[in-house]
Amino acid sequence: MHNLKNLFTQHIDAGLYPGVEWKIIHQNSIFEGRLGYLDFSSKKSLGTNSLYRIWSMTKPVISVVILQLIEEKKIKLDDIITEYLPQFKNLKVLKTRDSNISDTVHIKNIPTIKDLLLHTAGFSYNFLGDAVAKEYDRVGLFHSNNTTLEDEINLLSTLPLLCQPSTEWVYSVAVDVLARIIEVITKEKLQSVLEKRIFQPLEMIDTSFMLDPSKLDRLMTSYEFDPLHKKLNDPSENTQKIGGYGYPTNSATYARGGHGLFSSLEDYSKFAQMLLTGKTKTGEIIISQSMLSLATTNHLSSSFFPLEIKNFDVDVLEENDLEPYGWGLGFRVMMDIDKINGIGSIGEFGWAGAAATYFLVDPKNDLTAVLMTQVLGAENILKKDFVKTIYQNL
Hints:
There is one protein chain. By secondary structure, this protein is an alpha+beta fold. The protein has two domains: about 5-55 and about 190-394, Beta-lactamase (3-Layer(aba) Sandwich); about 70-185, Up-down Bundle (Methane Monooxygenase Hydroxylase, Chain G, domain 1). Helix content is about 25%, strand content about 15%. It has helices at about 5-15, 60-70, 115-120, 130-140, 150-155, 175-185, 190-200, 265-275, 290-295, 380-394, and strands spanning about 20-25, 30-40, 45, 50-55, 90-95, 105, 225, 230-235, 260-265, 325, 330-335, 350, 360, 365-370, 375. The protein is globular, with a radius of gyration of 20 Å.
């Protein structure tokens, strides 16, 4: 794992990343390091407790709480979402992918909790290129720093679905809907539910939707990669890009399901380690082994493959990261390592964030790995080098 430092230094020297931090735990061995800066202009070095916007690495945290509620019999996988969010009872569906936003048909089946976890509920995402995505953007869905989760989900309930539930895999705002369902079931704000159920038991002291002002100087500055000039800029103002989403540091009412958490390498590594066994390091059960197995098994039939996430400004993916993966209840799940040149392990699972953060959990090899940086639209080379180096050195 020691050549990671050399590889990552090259990418930082090339101006592709401001700084990088990583932690790999294999059996009882720990390999970790950090390089580069928290911020280019001040040249402030990364500290051991640097903080990051983890974007979609928020999603697995939400999914685990949903799985806990299923285990507690407060909710079922096949419950339809209108049992908890009746405002979705008038959902319509776009007639075809190319239809005008007002050209809709009746919904055949209301999406279920399972559909939300699997991204088969029919929702879209602002940065995708379809008509529903453009409508999300037009109405400002999730752009605000000061709306509540309830406000946003109420707005979402007035918009049509992109496709009939259970017919396609579309990466989407489904996990934000799950987060709102958590609030409805627990009758508590998402922030306090996550604190009680996940962050406190795992001693994740730096993970939250709001940064204490005293922690602001530990937050890595966010950049956006310009592929044309191969350099980093300030994040774009284009609202249809993911960087246009609200992600405030200091709003006490702010919570989301699909993004929004701040975390540290150390904290997220604790979460990843928990996902190996379902337990904290002191043996407290966060989620049962059987539920963990269910959640990290592929639930999609072959007709859904290959899974793809294409931004609105991309017609054809140069390479599809998700090609070897299926999808579980909130996680990508490795199914075919031949599609990734034999690098990896069947059953490896995890996810990533829009600013090039990444994590994997590999139960077969008793391995977890977390990578932190802060570049939107980043070159994929960092993650590829990370994963390749790990598996070449096992």
